[in-house]
């Protein structure tokens, strides 16, 4: 079962950001499916480590875009990203390899955080003035 189902409600209206979000969701779902699924089995720690890396790369790209566009809430948005990575770091510190995921604890938090972040923070990026289209 997928951890997060992409929905058009998550779209922020900037093709490169939406594509990045879709790829992030796909990658997280792929990793999630490997958790406890036979031969390719990932440990919870492998899963968290991979998700951390994927999310961090996405945040870096998004923050670069915000800087390029002089996004005014850059600091707040970046702080949200940092809080997420900090929490992931804490979970990785607490986790044992045999932590069950079926209870939805970590995975539920992860999917709720991402969906909420797309809809509350990332969606505000679509109001960025597109400087490229302003050039004569
Ligand atoms: Fe973001
Ligand atoms: Fe994002």
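^ Assign residues to that structure.
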């Amino acid at each position: 079962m997928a951890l997060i189902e992409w929905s058009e409600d998550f779209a922020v209206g900037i093709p490169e950001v939406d594509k990045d979000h879709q790829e992030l969701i796909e990658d997280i779902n792929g990793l999630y499916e490997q958790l406890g699924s036979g031969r390719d089995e990932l440990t919870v720690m492998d899963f968290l480590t991979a998700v951390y890396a994927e999310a961090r790369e996405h945040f870096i790209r998004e923050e670069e875009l915000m800087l390029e566009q002089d996004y005014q809430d850059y600091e707040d948005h970046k702080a949200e990203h940092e809080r997420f990575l900090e929490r992931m770091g804490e979970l990785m510190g607490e986790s044992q390899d045999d932590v069950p995921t079926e209870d939805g604890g970590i995975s539920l938090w992860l999917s709720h955080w991402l969906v909420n972040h797309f809809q509350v923070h990332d969606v505000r990026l679509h109001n960025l003035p597109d400087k490229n289209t302003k050039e004569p």
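The first helix runs from residue 15 to 34.
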